[in-house]
Amino acid sequence: MEQRAAWGCVALAALLGCCAAQGAGPGAGLRELLAWKQVSFAFADDAARSRALDSGDFVPEHNAPLGLDVSGDRLFVTVPRWRKGVAATLNVIHLDDAMLRSDGPPAAPLLQPYPSWEANTLPAEGEGEGAAAGKLLSVFRVRADPCGRLWALDTGLDDLLGSTRRVAPARLVVIDLASDRVVREYALPDADLKPDSFWAHIAVDVTNATCDDAFAYLSDVGAQGLVVYSWKQNASWRVEHHFFNFDPLRGNFHIGGANFQWKDGLFGVALSAPDDDGGRTAYFHPLASTHEFAVPTRVWQNSSAADDYYAYRVLGSRGERAQSTASFIHEPSGVLFYTLVNRNGVGCWNTNKPFSEENQGLAAHDDKALIFPNDLKVCGGGNLWVLSNRLGDFLYGKLDPNEVNYRIFRRPVPEVVRGTVCE
Ligand SMILES: *[C@@H]1O[C@H](CO)[C@@H](O)[C@H](O)[C@H]1NC(C)=O
Ligand SMILES: *[C@@H]1O[C@H](CO)[C@@H](O)[C@H](O)[C@H]1NC(C)=O
Ligand SMILES: *[C@@H]1O[C@H](CO)[C@@H](O)[C@H](O)[C@H]1NC(C)=O
User: Fold this and answer.
1) pLDDT per residue over 183-231, tens digit each?
2) Which of 18, 75, 236, 304 shows its CA 20 to 30 Å from the CA of 177?
3) pTM of the model
């Protein structure tokens, strides 16, 4: 990511110029379940917490939650190692009735390292790559599949914005959610890597009837490419296409109090429900772009067909300032949700309708609570989950520890889309 930052506040509302209805109140369109000024972790006891603070293993202001997914009553939250002092990169929160139902203020639970503290402990310098086996180092996004597995895409890098230490190669780590054990570790081979490769998003293509034939699609946002991983073959291949590239006219971001320029390529990959022969449509977009594209997943799954230029379709632009990170499809309705990082909101498009700017809805919008909506998923009975984390201010400015900086929202999909063009 580009780290050139220009300072100054921008009156976002004035720039939005958007047509859709804008609600009021925290995360209008969504319900704020969890909210933290700073996150803390479930240390064994106060002494362990004090030791971590004293040693610099835990620097609270360097811990920004970024990715999420839900499986049953477990909410997984990632905290990438942008800087030194991230206590644990993969964490779980046990959702209880009070968190889910209370109409009171949002909860601020401790993060419990997952699957264990041990697995989240960074190997010391000089320990070698072997010491990273079975560990989670720096995870941006995760995906819980319908086969009881959690897929984590691990960059292998500590202190990304500082000394940038490569602790291990970028890896796919898959954890069995029943036993909480790592069941597969796959380091991306050199053939899949480019000098600028950087791994921030994963989509998993599987149903509960095809658990042994799963595919994962890993977005290389740094080097504008895609890597396909086959569970059955335990092998991967790189895919290149012009449509994975950033748009040089769409790389300027005004988010929260920060203005910065990014040239991030392929990011969000959202999968349609499978068709009769099990193939899906992958809808995808680069981050520094406002365009959406589509390709059949069968194309990606065949390494000799995946680079076929003509298999890919341009859908069109989502509109001004409609840059997006993660996207996800609610399979029963076919509604695609996407973060609107440059508009403090969540967009939607009903994939049963033609793709056009008019058919893009604003599912949620809030100039305070939805500053940098970073990840979203639809899970657990059709709820849309969204995490916002003021990433622009975290990276380029200063977060105020007296303000709420990190939030997690949830709302049933039918309520989210009611009254929008996505209904
Ligand atoms: C999958 O491939 C990786 C990398 O080549 C290897 O380390 C691992 O043992 C393999 N796993 C299985 C289950 O074959
Ligand atoms: C598999 O998924 C389908 C559709 O979501 C569901 O109806 C079915 O009960 C699931 N089967 C199992 C064994 O979980
Ligand atoms: C993969 O693609 C190649 C090239 O288009 C084609 O010849 C081959 O039949 C495909 N393989 C499968 C299994 O579909």
Assistant:
1) 999 999 999 999 999 999 999 999 999 999 999 999 999 999 999 999 9
2) 236
3) 0.93
Distance 208 CA to ligand 2 centre (A): 6
Starting at the earlier edge strand, list the strands of the sheet with 258-261: 5-7, 258-261, 252-255
What does the alpha-carbon distance between residue 310 and residue 303 come to, in Å, rounded to a whole number? 15
**How many domains does the chain contain in total?**
1
In a domain, 422, yes or no: no
Taking the centre of ligand 1 as the mean of its atom positions, its distance from the CA of residue 231, in whole angstroms, is 10
For residue 1, what is the DSSP state? Answer: -
117 lines ligand 1 (CB under 6 A): no
Supply the mean pLDDT for the chain: 92
**Residues 63, 38: contact at Cβ < 8 Å?**
yes
> Per the structure block, which two tokens stand in for 79?
């905290």
Q: Is the CB of 184 under 6 A from ligand 1?
A: yes
pLDDT in tens, 108-162: 999 999 999 999 999 988 887 789 999 999 999 999 999 999 999 999 999 999 9
Q: Give residue 352's identity as a one-letter amino acid code.
A: N
Instruction: State how beta strands 90-94 and 74-78 pair.
Output: antiparallel
CATH of the domain at 263: 2.120.10.30
Residue numbers of the domain that contains 177 = 2-417
Q: How far apart are CA 205 and CA 348, in angstroms?
A: 21
Q: Is 305 in the pocket of ligand 3 (CB under 6 A)?
A: yes
Q: How far apart are CA 217 and CA 194, in angstroms?
A: 17
User: What spacing in Å lies between the alpha carbon of 162 and ligand 1's midpoint?
Assistant: 32
In-domain check, residue 290: yes
Residue 423 lies in a domain: no
d(CA 255, CA 39): 21
Looking at all shown ligands, the one closest to residue 234's CA atom is 1
In a domain, 116, yes or no: yes
Is any atom of ligand 3 closer than 6 Å to the C-beta of 19?
Answer: no
